[in-house]
Amino acid sequence: MINYVKEIRVSIGMTQQELGDLLKVSRQTIFSIETGKYVPSTILSLKISKIFNKPVEKIFVLEKND
Amino acid sequence: MNPSFLLPNRFKKIGIILFPIGFIIWIITQRGLFNTDLNQTMKVITLTLSFFSFLFGLYFISFSKEPIEDEYINSVRLKSFQISSITQMVFFLISFIIMFIFNLQPNGDGGLSIFLLSSILIFWIMYMVIFNYTLITNKSKLDD
After folding, report:
1. Separation CA B123–CA B139 (nearest Å)
2. What is the ipTM of this complex?
């Protein structure tokens, strides 16, 4: 699965720390999601989508192998 | 969701102090490196206290919450547990294969105790190392 968390976050001028504070997770977690090391839970994905005001499928996209 | 069995984060700092101190004193007393005038009772007390200090330090480091205990930390914990359990199983298998091939046996009750103790500790030490190594390397790669 690929995600556009970093692209969207940067486009709205938000830092990893700010996003982490809004989601009540650490900056490490945001970094791991952005680099694809960690796939967030449904709850966290929905929270991210709410903060970015975008549908989840626009932020997280399935690849052929998924 | 935070697992309720984890200790507050301050226990990790206590564990970081207790773990090496207990280990060093235990090794020194066990090996008799500084041959002091400790009588047998004092030696047993020192060995017991230092070993429990080492053990509690290990458990405090392993079972303390991170400053922000979120789902990513939980997933790192789970992965560390999986790798540690596989390592322990491999250790057991290799040990028994070596014992079988070379017809070796643990040297008496003491040898058996050390073998069983080390196989238990391998799990916790591996868990502690993998979990903290993953978090530290991840923190060092942080960029914005």
Report:
1. 24
2. 0.87
* pLDDT reading at B139 higher than 80: yes
- pTM for this structure? 0.82
Residues 6+ apart with CB under 8 A from A48: A5, A19, A23, A40, A56, A59
**Residue A66: inside a domain, yes or no?**
no
CB-closest option in A24, A28, A40 to B142: A28
Please determine, for residue B35, whether its predicted confidence score (pLDDT) is greater than 70.
Answer: no
Q: Name the domain count of chain B.
A: 2
> What are B73-120's pLDDT values in tens digits?
999 999 999 999 999 999 989 988 888 888 777 777 777 788 888 888
Q: Are residues B78 and B53 in the same domain?
A: no
Residue A11: helix, strand or coil by DSSP?
helix
Residues of B in contact with A37 (CB under 8 A): 138
What count of other Cβ atoms lies within 10 Å of the Cβ of residue B20? Answer: 13
Task: For chains A and B, count residue pairs whose Cβ atoms are closer than 8 Å.
Answer: 42
Q: Is A50 part of a structural domain of the chain?
A: yes
Please give the Cα distance from B11 to B60 (Å, whole number): 6
Q: Are residues B34 and B18 in the same domain?
A: yes
